[in-house]
Design goal:
By secondary structure, the chain is mainly alpha-helical. The chain is built from 19 helices and six strands. Strand 1 and strand 2 form a beta hairpin.
Length: 430
């Protein structure tokens, strides 16, 4: 991922030097386990007990000849630590190292993403509580429907990301497996103790059953969960973008001192953060399909998945990390324009109460069809005459024979739509 959309903590997990450190730890632990089994001399593990400074240029130089990254790494370790290369990687295959390393990197990435989700949930809950009773226009198809509250919007997003947090916890468990079972996964040349030993030391669990690789359905689930989180990020971003439009202007992104919105139009304050989040969400979702395609490999393995994962694993994790940090900052600093919320709510001139009038007519004995016709005809007059709904209803003599004026006026009460808000909040923030 390019530096523009990267945070240092996450990026460091996917740097070459960190990858080699993980590979080295796996090989060192393997030697320790093999020494305990008396398969290799004890002094091999002792020589690997200290850290090694990796000369990436030298490793790449070796790889340019041998055309194999793990072999190049092992050759470098042998020549640097002064170890007989025959004792390194004993009974193992390259996927033992590569897949276990990837599991560690994905697990550590999950830790960061989960922390980001927790920070986002705190921000969303704060806004939900702050704007719990700020009544605003609910919209369906982009049109005024019935009223809701701004707080309920944030509460809904909170519940959505809490579900994603739980999904990611489960995905992290799925992805955190260690595979040290040899060429086709049958432990023919490496004792199962080695896998158990490395798994315990690295905070992983031994893979239930593998071929030459860890089954890729685990990875497919992980990237699928990231795709769902990305869609939820876009869900919030699109809402903010719509509410920031000039004609709506109910909320807006924070615009800092000295910030410029357009190279051509000095008046512009654009929702660039939300738009950026929409783009990053598309990117993360695009990695889901190739992850799903990686599940089907030839027999005990091929490497069609390898090039895919080398690209999508770091990029998906880094982009997701950046997007969640950006979204949290956006929510924390969101500007709410209460005066415009009220103005927009009233701009439909009472039409948001149409269902309440409909139901009152039904409760008074009319059929739903009869009631609907009365309410709709008066609603259309509001649009035609540029009047307001209550005024039009008060001129309907037939309706007034069923609902008196006092009762009719009592129906136009925004508090009616917030009477169960505490019940909703108790379910969301239990």
């Amino acid at each position: 991922m390019i530096p523009r959309y990267s945070c240092k903590e996450m990026s460091s997990i996917w740097e070459e030097n960190n990858k080699f450190n993980i590979w080295f730890k796996i090989e060192r632990l393997a030697c320790e386990a093999q020494a305990k089994l008396k398969v290799i001399p004890e002094n091999v593990a002792e020589k690997l007990s200290s850290t090694i400074q990796f000369n990436i240029e030298r490793i790449n130089e070796i790889e340019s000849t041998v055309k194999h990254d793990v072999i190049a790494f092992l050759t470098y370790i042998a020549e640097t630590a002064g170890i007989d290369v025959r004792y390194l990687h004993y009974g193992m295959t390259s996927s033992d190292v590569l897949d276990t390393c990837l599991a560690v990197q994905l697990k550590e990435s999950c830790d960061i993403i989960l922390k980001n989700l927790e920070n986002l949930l705190v921000a969303l809950k704060k806004k939900a509580e702050e704007y719990k009773n700020v009544v605003c226009a609910g919209r369906s198809h982009g049109m005024h429907a019935e009223s809701t509250t701004l707080g309920l919007k944030f509460a809904r997003f909170y519940a959505e990301f809490e579900r994603s947090r739980q999904r990611l916890i489960n995905a992290q468990k799925e992805i955190s497996t260690c595979k040290i079972s040899g060429a086709v996964g049958n432990f023919a040349n490496v004792d199962p103790f080695v896998e158990e030993y490395i798994a315990k030391e690295m905070g992983l669990i031994p893979e239930t059953i593998s071929s030459q690789v860890i089954p890729r359905d685990r990875h497919a689930m992980f990237f699928s969960v990231l795709g769902v989180i990305a869609s939820s990020i876009e869900n919030v971003a699109v809402e903010i973008r719509h509410l920031q439009r000039t004609e709506v202007n109910e909320v807006s992104e924070y615009f800092s001192t000295g910030q410029k919105g357009s190279s051509a139009m000095p008046h512009k304050c654009n929702p660039i953060l939300s738009e950026n989040l929409t783009g990053l969400s598309r990117l993360v979702r695009s990695y889901v399909f190739p992850a799903l395609e990686n599940v089907a490999l030839w027999h005990e393995r091929d490497i069609s998945h390898s090039s895919v994962e080398r690209c999508i694993a770091p990029d998906a994790c880094i982009a997701m990390d950046f997007a969640l940090v950006r979204l949290t900052d956006l929510i924390d600093n969101l500007v709410v324009h209460k005066e415009n919320i009220e103005k927009n709510l009233n701009s439909s001139k009472g039409l948001v109460f149409s269902q309440r009038v409909l139901l009152e007519l039904v409760n008074s004995g009319l059929t739903r069809e009869e009631a609907y016709k009365i309410v709709q005809s008066n609603a259309m007059k509001v649009k035609q005459n540029n009047s307001d709904f209550l005024t039009e209803l008060k001129t309907d003599k037939f309706l007034l024979e069923i609902i008196n004026t006092e009762k009719l006026e009592s129906l136009f009460d925004f508090a009616y739509y917030t009477k169960h808000i505490d019940h909703i909040y108790s379910k969301v923030f239990n």
